[in-house]
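#onboarding

Welcome to the new folks! Below is a worked example of what a typical request in this channel looks like: someone posts a single protein sequence, and someone else replies with the predicted structure as tokens. Don't worry about understanding the tokens yet, we'll cover that in week two.

Example request:
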Amino acid sequence: MRLAVSSGDPVSIKGDCGHLPGLMAPIDWLILIAYMACTLALGLWLSRRNRSEDDYFVAGRSLSGWLAGASMAATTFSIDTPLYVAGLVGTQGVAGNWQWWSFGLAHVAMAVVFAPLWRRSGVLTDAAFTELRYGGAPAAWLRGTKAFLLALPVNCIGIGYAFLAMRKVCEALGIVSNQPMSSLAGMPDTVALLAVVAVLVLIYTVAGGLWAVVVTDFVQLVLAMLGALAVSWAAVHAAGGMEAMLTQINNLGRPELLSLVPWHWTEAGFDWIGGAGIGVSTFLAYLTVQWWSFRRSDGGGEFIQRMLATRDERQAQLAGWVFLVVNYLLRSWLWVVVALAALVLLPPDGDWELSYPTLAVRYLPPVVLGLVVVSLVAAFMSTVSTAVNWGASYLTHDLYQRFVRPKASQRELLLVGQMISVLLLCFGVLVALLDQSIGDIFRLVVVIGTGSGIVLILRWFWWRINASAELAAMVCGFVVGLSTSGKLDPLLGRLDVVPPLFIADYGVRLMVTTGITALVWILVMLATPPESTEVLERFVQQVQPPGPGWSRWRDRLGVPIVDSLAELIRRFLLSSAVLFGALLGSGGFLLHQSLNGWLGLVVAVLCGIALLRSYGLRGSVG
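Example response:
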């Protein structure tokens, strides 16, 4: 999730929300400086663990599921994420969160189905997986293309976007004002702050590798959660308590604000809530297409890195479940509560995305405010450090070692990985300076994954999927995504092009993109030969894939089945019911909607019991 940051002058909270207190108190600055110093010391201390490429990029494959899952959750808690949720709730109501809640289905599949498969693959990156699953020149081209695209344009733009979001938030909080500092030869204080934070992230990430990233991620996650809890408690208290706040929101005459779904029942019957801004086709696309058509359908790069770094398959699954609980069940409602309080406490014509920092500055006392600012900085550092280490793993392992220096020593690869980490962060900072186009460029890069997700899923379950089909899906999804999206602004705002196949409705656009992409990759697959017997046998022996799509190969090689496909599907459905039952149930109780609360709780408990029983009965046929 990313916050859409507008171009132009920094947003002024004071202009939108009235007079606010000044800069942070000295004690708040001391807390921030102490945190940054401790983070640096921790990263340097952990650098002693790095002896090889595996140590640097997958922590020696020794992470516990708890630590890996916490790192996954911290990575998704960027500095702009609570702002993004506040913007959704302010404009579309609680139901607007289905825009990202729907990805919970993909994350359930990751935890239940794909985590053990990834761990059994034993690869270093998901790009390297392509040459385990496929063979020959097409596999090499696919590996190199994915590594380059994910490490440079996608990753660097993500890093730059995080820096830009931090700049906007810090200026809004009054931490910096973008004014020149005479002590630094006229350098603006905003640039100076970004430079200090960049150097700090660079030192502990480059020196410590993934070990430094995941351990500091854990600390940063705790701080981020405490910060969110502090802001939500202060905001609800300022609104007069939960019941008074909900009453005031109901009096606003916007039924979508407190609705868990974009419809409700009236005396006239079923009624779709138009004010939610979510059309029927869009909502259906969220639940039935988006989560499996996106390029992260079987995990996603940095999540896969964490699962590959765990001790074994069981720990990989545990990591997925820790992420699900923290990301969806704990953090969701802390952010939503702050966004709801903003509807009562702030003017209706303000920028809802700035509700989080606005309420923090307005209602938190010194020390607590310092801790919240630290939590936001921690969220930013977690995201950037992960992106740097993850991107370096692609360029080092999948490009440098694979195509340039196949016989490079572990010491050389470690040094190259550290040098590439420096370059990636520098590129990301440069991208952040393109504040007039970063939002548009980021959206253009994201569409590269649309439509290809189904191939990423099927390659685990059907032997006929080949490298040409996956490459075709990736390229076609990118082209069709560009052709059907809104106005493009890829060249610093100087182009204003309306695509010839522009489709305004997001749901229809997603379905069209997925459908056209599917047609193309299926035709390419049928027109190209399957992978060789040697490649397929190697994959089956290493990964032990489930399902009837591999039964002939398993029988030939005598490879046992770990879990049947039917059992995996059953666990996926039960786990999805547990997650969304708990999510909507907890939301129902929080919003004083008892019926929704009890329904969600009953579904979660009953399906949870069935799920636990299923893990006691391992599948023996598939």
